[in-house]
Design a protein that fits this description.
heterodimer, A: Rossmann fold, six-stranded mixed sheet, 7 helices, globular, B: 405 residues, alpha+beta, two-stranded antiparallel ribbon, binds adenosine-5'-triphosphate, binds magnesium ion
């Protein structure tokens, strides 16, 4: 059963008279528990696709249906709420709110969801331990390495108990060891908790770990391989 | 982890910049409070002096007297008027005055002088006249002597115990002349008065000017400036068409104008000051929003409503203003408090210059509520206006663009 349904999705940028078709009539489905990589050359439309899928960038045409909800039919306010409830985000870098500690960053999203203090604190501890930095709960982002920051970002993305997690090149700024650690964490969460991950990457090692690899070329799906 | 905590921490991300911004608010409020305190203090004092020495808060006069200050425009306060004043409970006390001019002559010299016929007891209660006696004694009831401005006495070369001859024009142009023993000398804080004023008992004055039973004004004392208007309103409907009631503002239009002029120039100065402060804060917020664009985008992306995010920025703006005001008050309150209790007396040549301009040579401060509340309210309003910038930035922000930075 698919939880995400992308239908005829197109994004055309119309900057200074020059039209760029960043995403060109894409159709895709994602099922619960997938561990899918979106790959392709620079400029092939990976970020654009993920942003439309995540309710951040409005498509020129087409639909994104998540849990039977066409998300681009929602008002901006409701869409924000939808993201809060259903989508976890991990960006390439500088994901975290600098003035909040690792723990507070993780808690923040549960705070927005209006969860009780008790639940927030317990879950934060759990999650930070799951991503292997339970001891850095009280550290501010600038005291953490890039890899540690990305792990906090994963913990934060998980904190809201989302339907799926979107990660746009989560390892692009990491060294190979941190990349491996982060991927192991994501893979473990995927396997043990059945968390759905959709991430984009350039990195061949990351692709290898994915169970499904969708390759974009010029905004179109060039291949879609499930191992 | 509430919004306040996030706002507070954001404030201290760039300590130097925040401190500079707070300092600009601090100085803005400081100047505004000091200027306002100084203005209010000196205006209150000016009004106080003028009211005390000359007009009183309220006067009842003949309808023509204001136009032509002549004995011929004096009036006889009849029993119905006096009983009305007695019945008006907000009139604390009233005193009659007969004001005119005369030539004062000693053996050597003669000078023109204002002559005030007053009721010594009541006048004492209203204007505390005896406090300015520096030599000799104050008048007693039905005194046939006079008390004289110190400089006038000096110019005439008389001291208490000597006698002055006064020559003038009495009621309806009759010749007025008499000899008056000098009882005491007055030193007012306004030198102009010292040079050209003398007082005598009102009956003595009425006899001198041959104006028996007549007064040029009845001076009414009320409990502070706020009582002036209601009492004037009450007395406006005196039945006698020959008689009219004035407030001090009507009697001293130049003073009212002077104060209005100074107040508005002060307001312009403070306005410019706060505009500069406002642009300073705005600059800080423009930089801050630019620097934080990505993180603001991330907060929206992960599900924070823009309205809530705006609240953080609004709080930051309020906090900068509030901290500036708070620091200013910490400094101003004791400072102003000290000078309210200890006005700065000006000495030497400066004092003479001020005196010649008709001002008491003293710098007074006011510690009234409005001195402090005005700048605080202004800063509060500025903070709210400034916060429009970060708030609209957040409301209009294109999340994707913010994330791509
Ligand atoms: N705001 C924009 N205005 C105009 N064109 C844009 C904009 N954003 C992206 N594009 C264009 O859309 C195309 C797809 O960009 P996108 O960022 O999605 O590619 P990508 O696959 O994520 O690339 P990379 O691997 O470098 O991150 C590119 O040609 C890009 O120049
Ligand atoms: Mg990209």
């Amino acid at each position: 059963m698919s939880i995400i349904n992308i239908k005829n999705l197109t994004k055309i940028y119309d900057g200074s008279g020059l039209e760029v078709v960043a995403v060109n009539n894409i159709n895709l489905e994602f099922a619960k528990g997938e561990f899918a990589a979106i790959v392709g050359p620079s400029g092939s439309g990976k970020t654009t696709l993920l942003n439309m899928l995540g309710g951040l960038d409005r498509p020129t045409s087409g639909e994104v249906v998540i849990d039977n909800q066409n998300i681009w039919e929602l008002s901006s306010r409701k869409l924000t709420n939808f993201r809060l409830k259903n989508i976890g985000f991990v960006f390439q870098s500088y994901n975290l709110i600098p003035v909040l500690t690792a723990g507070e960053n993780t808690e923040f999203i549960m705070h927005l969801q209006g969860r009780s203090k008790n639940e927030r604190q317990n879950r934060t501890k759990e999650l930070l331990e799951a991503v292997g930095i339970g001891d850095r709960l009280k550290s501010r982002p600038n005291k953490l390495s890039g890899g540690q920051q990305q792990r906090v970002a994963v913990a934060r993305a998980l904190a809201s108990k989302p339907t799926f997690i979107l990660a746009d090149e989560p390892t692009a700024n990491l060294d190979s060891k941190s990349t491996e650690t982060l991927l192991d964490i994501m893979e473990t969460l995927n396997k043990t908790e059945n968390i759905t991950f959709i991430f984009s990457t350039h990195d061949a090692r990351v692709m290898k770990k994915a169970r499904r690899v969708i390759t974009l070329v010029d905004g179109k799906v060039d291949s879609d391989v499930t191992k | 982890m509430n919004l306040f905590k996030i706002a507070w921490r954001n404030l201290w991300r760039n300590k130097k910049r925040t401190l500079i911004t707070i300092a600009s608010v601090f100085f803005g409020v400081l100047w505004a409070v000091l200027l306002k305190s100084l203005q209010t203090g000196s205006f209150d004092n000016m009004v106080d002096n003028m009211v005390k020495f000359t007009s009183g808060y309220i006067q009842v006069q003949n309808i023509d007297y204001k136009q032509t200050k002549s004995l011929n425009n004096s009036f006889n306060p009849d029993s119905s008027l006096l009983s009305l004043l007695e019945q008006t409970s907000d009139v604390l006390i009233y005193t009659p005055r007969l004001e005119s001019f005369a030539l004062a002559a000693s053996e050597e010299q003669s000078f023109g002088t204002a002559v005030f016929g007053v009721c010594p007891e009541n006048e004492e209660q209203i204007s505390n006249l005896s406090q300015w006696i520096v030599d000799g004694a104050y008048l007693v009831a039905s005194d046939d002597g006079i008390i004289v401005g110190e400089l006038l006495a000096k110019n005439l070369d008389v001291v208490p115990g000597d006698t002055l001859a006064l020559i003038g024009q009495g009621y309806h142009g009759v010749q007025a002349a008499g000899l008056f023993p000098v009882r005491g000398l007055l030193r007012f804080p306004i030198p102009d008065l010292n040079r050209q004023i003398l007082y005598m008992d009102i009956e003595t004055a009425q006899n001198f000017f041959q104006a028996s039973g007549l007064v040029t004004s009845l001076v009414l004392m009320v409990d502070g400036p706020s009582m002036v208007e209601p009492v004037v309103a009450q007395l406006k409907n005196i039945k006698n068409p020959e008689i009219i009631t004035y407030s001090w503002e009507e009697l001293q239009p130049q003073l009212v104008q002077l104060i209005a002029g100074k107040t508005s120039s002060g307001k312009i100065f403070i306005g410019i000051l706060f505009m500069l402060v406002g642009f300073g804060i705005l600059g800080t917020f423009i930089m801050m929003v630019a620097e934080r664009k990505r993180e603001l985008g991330i907060m929206i992306a992960i599900g924070m409503q823009r309205v809530r995010l705006s609240a953080i920025l609004f709080l930051e703006s309020l906090l900068i203003g509030a901290l500036g005001v708070f620091c200013s008050y910490l400094f101003c309150l004791p400072f102003v408090g000290y000078f309210v209790k200890n006005p700065i007396r000006i000495g030497g040549e400066m004092a003479e210059v001020w005196g010649d301009m008709g001002f008491e040579p003293v710098i007074m401060f006011s510690g009234s509520m409005e001195v402090f509340s005005g700048p605080a309210v202004t800063v509060f309003i500025i903070s709210i206006i400034i916060s429009i910038y970060p708030i609209t930035s957040v409301i209009r922000m294109k999340t994707v663009n913010a994330l791509r930075t």
